[in-house]
Amino acid sequence: MYNGTILVVDDEASIREALRDYLMEMGHDVSVATDGEDAILKFDSRRTDLVIADFFMPKMNGIELLQNIKAQNEKVVFIMMTGEPEVVMAVDVMKEGAYDYIAKPFNLDDLRIKTERALHARQLMESVERMRLLLWGLILPIPVWLFLGIWLGRNWK
Question: With contact defined as beta carbons under 8 Å apart, do 6 and 50 qualify?
Answer without folding.
Answer: yes
